[in-house]
Amino acid sequence: xxxxxxxxxxxxxxxAAVALGVCTVAAxxxxxxxxxxxxxxxxxxxxxxxxxxxxxxxxASYGDDNRSTDDWTGGDGTYSVPLPDGRVLWMFSDTYLGRxxxxxxxxxxxxxxxxxxVVQEKGSLAGTIHGGSASAPTSLIEPVGxxxxxxxxxxxxxxRLRQFVSTYDRTGPGMWDWRWSGTDIVSFSxxxxxxxxxxxxxxxxxxxxxxxxxxxxxxxYLYGVEDLQSVKYLHxxxxxxxxxxxxxxxxxxxxxSSDPNESARVMSGVSNxxxxxxxxxxxxxxxxxxxxxxxxxxxxYVACSPQGPFTNRTRLYTxxxxxGNLFTYNALAHPEFTNRQGFLVSYNVNSxxxxxxxxxxxxxxxxxxxxxxxxxx
Length: 377
What we know:
Tachylectin-2, Chain A; about 5% helix; globular
């Protein structure tokens, strides 16, 4: 039987050279006129983005702390959800565990798992939750009938955490030889974060829902991606608030349908992770641009309803890490960390050469920026 491993610690800060690419962009977002009966939407808003060194350093310090042999030292995915008891759960997909050498390298035998949680308590990253044991860690979520699972977005419903996970099968030995096989909703009990049930999500015509969630009024909106490799399309579904396991409705381009196969392609160019953040009557979609392969652009769109249309693409940020073997991907918003500088956005950094991830532990960690949205005069 798999042990549900929990390791907690206080974050220790140690000096680290973290390269920050400073890039500030100001742009105007113009929204399409709202449909009859829709809320009035701010027609123009000024958006700017700057690096957030506080969160960059928080994860760097946590990853470099060598007091445990089975804590997070780097990962991607980087979803987050605030828990009712005040903690924040960071949800990662492929993750390295173990220790980091003081020269900034990762030992060759470092364990790698496909998903885990990192718990934040009172501003500090305090522990890693995974499966297996400290000496033989495994993924927290082990899918049935698939090779592995990567995390999507999550929400809280009463005493349950509902976590979207996408399952995958390997098709060959190469770096990109794998395919999506389905999407599940895994329910965890609170506050102990134990898996209590797994349910298949309605995927319809090959749409991976759970790329992003938005809780807005009587509904939870569910953003899915139809990934055709050369192009990725956004789809939108919704469930009644607090009833993610109940019936869903799917946006068909004109209204809401109970048939998942009627789901319409809302837009293209999104990544496999997206966020929609509400500011007043405007809905701002944040994503990594995929209209160009391995783009270094994080972009935003605006709409007057959760289902779009999302228009007026604007560049928020150019990721300075991109180049050579390195690429960036899957930007996500974390609105629970909004402050006077704006709402928090993360993105992931990786390398086409896996050896880079052992030679430099700073590569395979999230980076953070702040996005400020202000009305345009």
